[in-house]
Amino acid sequence: MAAVMPERLIVFTRFPEPGKTKTRLIPALGARGAARLQRQMTEHILATAAKESIRPGLTIEVRHEGGNTILMQAWLGSQFSYRPQGSGDLGRRMARAFEAAFRDSKKAAVIVGSDIPGISADIIQQAFERLQENDLVLGPAHDGGYYLIGMKNIIPATTYARLFEGINWGTGEVFSQTIQIANTLGLSIVLLESLADVDCPEDLHNWQKFKKAAAKPSPVQNISIIIPALNEAAAIARTLSHLQGGDNLEVIVVDGGSIDETAERAGSLGAKVIQSNPGKALQMNTGAKAAAGDILVFLHADTLLPKGSSHKIVSTLNQNGVAAGAFRLTINSTRAGIRIIERMANLRSRLLQLPYGDQALFLRKVLFEEIGGFPELPIMEDFILIRRLKRKGKIVLLPESVMTSPRRWLHLGIFKTWLINQLIVIAYYLGIPPERLNRWYRREAGKKGR
Questions:
Q1: In this predicted structure, what is the pLDDT of residue 52?
Q2: Starting at the edge strand that comes first in sequence, how are the strands of the sheet with 303-304 ordered?
Q3: Three-state secondary-structure class, residue 138
Q4: pTM over 0.90
Q5: Which of 63, 201, 319, 391 has its CA 20 to 30 A from that of 437?
Q6: Number of domains in the chain
Q7: How far apart are the C-alpha atoms of 251 and 273, rounded to whole Å?
Q8: Residue 117 in 3-state DSSP?
Q9: Is 317 strand, coil or helix?
Q10: Residues 6 or more apart in contact with residue 40 via CB below 8 angstroms
């Protein structure tokens, strides 16, 4: 079991006292209206963080101006911790919040403002996830500032304190100045999507737009998980048992003529079982035709999806410009060579947007049908499909990992399997037909059993 990572989400807000909060909105809303809006936006961000984006080890702290702990608890409840922001400009107050989090042994901390209607659980999750491989994460605001900043507890206090020095707070230069300082300090930076805040009367339409969207019931996006299988009785039960059920989740096992108990075990675990001629591409296309879901996930019979993957899949495909996605690869083996294979696969997937079939590719059914599904070839079907998808949009690699069996690497040997895979890709680019490549691959695989 992975160790729990102690993390802290820090929400900067103000006690909603009329006349002392959102003062720039008073001409449009009045003192009480501005305070009421401050109250609503703070409750929105905390409800989003507490109900939807719970991460193991995550604690939520409210840093407030005005009021006191008793008043804040009476307003927002006792499930959060409360600390006053203290004196100084915004930069000094944020530096103090990071310092306290790291002094409390938090491995990562993220600060968010309370006046961003578009903040979501997914954005908060992304912030912490991106910190696994970067020093600094920023969420730029449309007005030239930022609505979110996060750091890891590996940066010296003297370094991150300098990140907040010399900034013209409250101006449109805040974000660009922060980026310049971070680059000077040698920090690796990752940016989240840009969002609008609510500071001035002309920003009020952002909150009204959010409330209107929130009032509409969001359409359920059904997911169909398609698992091609052939004599997978030993693996299929674990794969299916690991899936989280739900009214919007359909599991289809496409059996290619197994002579063991694959179909029976899959059916007993609630999967919809369809019979097909053998051939992974043909089986996956058959499953896709029968799928009722708006979203298709193609999963190998010996691969486990990460927990909570349904939400990640939906939120990823809802992003603009995204055609498809997949997960990082983890192989269930302790061998050092396997770790190298994992790193190379994940590097290829991230840099070239070229994940393979064992990484649980997912996309919308309408797009799958538009590009003609998998080419019904004996080999390279996932590689060709991904190349077609890249012409339609971005292929996103999620930071969560699938866990797959090491059996195909151990069967021929780790290095030989990797070498054969690279040679097949090169040969395909040289124009050698996939049928011929498949015969060569089968011949090499068969040598092991002689």
A1: 46
A2: 272-275, 249-255, 223-229, 295-298, 361-364, 322-331, 394-404, 303-304
A3: strand
A4: no
A5: 391
A6: 3
A7: 9
A8: coil
A9: helix
A10: none
